[in-house]
């Protein structure tokens, strides 16, 4: 059993419509070289996951993500400093994040936001960094990718105070139906990870059912949050295909309808080339 826990789940059958993994961490999945990246996205494409957005949470990861996005046409990047790493976030760090985030294949500023679960960074430092990233997203004209853990009220308050960018994505949405309605009403996009497949996530199930097409995405957050029934095993971008199928069952919709909604929303929000044109 221990050996199985360390193994990847099987690559699922290909989805009827290609989708985008809206948020993954290819470096944390073990990718180092261009060959590693290609192998991972090849596995993803076999499952019908045709594009991935690899996300940085510190400067080293940001540099790598930008480079990796140039190795394979199916890979794009998002750049920011994770809220748990904002204890020391000075002018030099901000200047480099801004430089990296401006790169052509960086499609979002993220993940940024607030994390009150861990105590690695003071709340005031997180909030100051979050406000700075909001401003950066607006100046660059790119979507804002939000990390929100146990901080719903403050995240929504700061977005309202600062004025949200044109596109806001709640990565690994963790709220209930009430939080989802607030986000949907504000025009934000909710990105559902493998957590939406967990049997005990009743509030998240309700949120997923009420979110309209055009305002939801699917992500893996790989190597974390592997979908049911493989919870606890390593995750990779191909795992998004499991979540798409589960989301379709939750919503009472056909898999191809949910996959099409996921693809078109990702291409619109991230301004990605269509999978039909490359």
From TrEMBL:
Species per Swiss-Prot/TrEMBL record: Amycolatopsis rifamycinica
A Pfam short name: TatD_DNase
Lineage, opening ranks: Bacteria, Bacillati, Actinomycetota, Actinomycetes, Pseudonocardiales
Binding site for a divalent metal cation 2: 147, 171
Cellular-component GO terms for this entry: cytosol
Coiled-coil ranges (or none): none
CDD domains recorded: TatD_DNAse (cd01310)
Lineage: superkingdom: Bacteria
Keyword Metal-binding: yes
Residues involved in a divalent metal cation 1 binding: 23, 25, 111, 221
Name used for this protein in its record: DNAase
PROSITE patterns, per database record: TATD_2
Keyword Cytoplasm: no
Keyword terms of this UniProt record: Hydrolase, Metal-binding
A GO term, aspect molecular function: metal ion binding
